Amino acid sequence: MTVCATEMTTTAPLTITTDGAYAARLAGEGEARYPERWTLDGPEPYAVPLPLAQPEEADSEVLPLADGRVLIHRRVADRHAFALLYPSGTYTGPRASGCGAGPRTGELGLGGIGAEEGLRVRLLPPCPDGSAAYALAVGDEETTVWQVAGHSGDGPRRAAVLPGRCSGGVWLDRAGRLLSLDREQDGRVKAVAVDLPRGGVVTPLLQIAEDSDDRLLMAAPDSGLLLIRSDAPGEPRLGWGVLGSARPVRFPECLRLEDAHPFAVQPGQVLMPETCGVALRVGGAGLALWRPADRYVFRLGAPAGWLGTGLWTPEGRLRLPYSTPEVPCGTVGLSQPAAPPPPVRVDPPPKPAARPVPLREAPLG
Q1: From the centroid of its chain, how far is CA 312?
Q2: Closest of 204, 210, 178, 177 to residue 192, by C-alpha
């Protein structure tokens, strides 16, 4: 699996770790919401509810870690609070969430940050190393990247401070060192790379045109494939490029899809970006598959109860999680369809066959 960005309001209700072992979501409805952890690396997927004495607010966020714990971000009075949740034995008491029998939930507080007026805080996608977790705090004039889990200190730690308002969030490497953010500055949005171990050193990442808005949506560290949204072609379009390549970004006509958002890229395709399968969420609940080499988009029917996300295996199998009343925790697998053969063209075109020339028309002399 690869790591995806958070585009405006397109976040899927289920978040999956980079290695695909765990996932987490805020389950339930209305005033009966509770965190739920999914285990995906066993013979069959299964879910574990992690309720506490009080139900969770609808704007709480959850993020799975590689060790099976779930990070939760809550707005509590005048601060943003973070904690780790984990199953810790059999639960026998009342459940405000109404989710039925399950394990008791342990909670480890991680501190919080102030909720100043106008400050927007959200969790970044799961870190590739699986142990650290980061949050993005966006103010009116600057953005702070906070490390909220996976460090030795007490409470959240400032990892980087950037001038301007940032959105997105894509990991560019397997070690969790380089983070891409879409920074709005001087009226334009440009993707930049942030080196977290070096105190947040910022370098430009996308500069398709001087007056264009260039956002990074996804990155595949193995192949270098980048999925981009830019208005450089004259309107916002989906495009693709290769990290570190001198070749320009391409905007295939087949990606002119209304309301399309990539959510997974096939891993393991070392130095072969054209062969990576890409899964896109189209129109909210639609599904499409694409590969740069095929130049063709396959529109498919999504399974009932699909949770809007998924992960690719290195072998090219796409696993889609879903939840229905009959199957509360399930996955379905799809393979990348074979592309139709390209039309046969002969260039230059063949010469027309010679025809017999009547004697009266034959050249003389």
Answers
A1: 12
A2: 204
Report CA-CA distances (Å) from 193 to 172, 262, 263: 8, 20, 20
Beta-carbon count within 10 A of 358 CB: 7
Q: Where are the beta strands (DSSP E) in 259-346?
A: 260-265, 278-282, 286-291, 296-300, 311-312, 317-322, 330-335
State which amino acid sits at residue 78: D
Helix or strand or coil: residue 274? helix
Q: What is the pTM of this model?
A: 0.86
Distance CA 221, CA 239 (A): 17
**Exposure string (b/e) for 88-118, b if CB count within 10 Å is 16 or more?**
eeebeeebbbebeebbebeeeebebbebeee
Tell me the per-residue pLDDT of 216-257, one tens digit each, with 9 for 90 and over: 999 999 999 999 999 999 999 999 999 988 889 999 999 998
pLDDT of residue 347: 58
Q: What is the Cα–Cα distance from 115 to 81, expressed in whole angstroms? A: 10
* pLDDT band at residue 352 using 50, 70 and 90 as cut-offs: low
> Do residues 105 and 50 lie in contact, with contact meaning Cβ atoms separated by under 8 Å?
yes
pLDDT over 80 at 292, yes or no: yes
* DSSP per position, 108-156: EEEEEEE--TT-EEEEPSPPTTSS-EEEEEE-SSEEEEEEEESSSSSS-
For β-strands 296-300 and 286-291, DSSP reports them as antiparallel
Report the amino acid identity of residue 163.
Answer: P
- Cβ atoms within 10 Å of 60's Cβ, excluding its own: 17
CA-to-CA separations, 195 to 160, 201, 262, 283, in angstroms, rounded: 8, 5, 24, 34
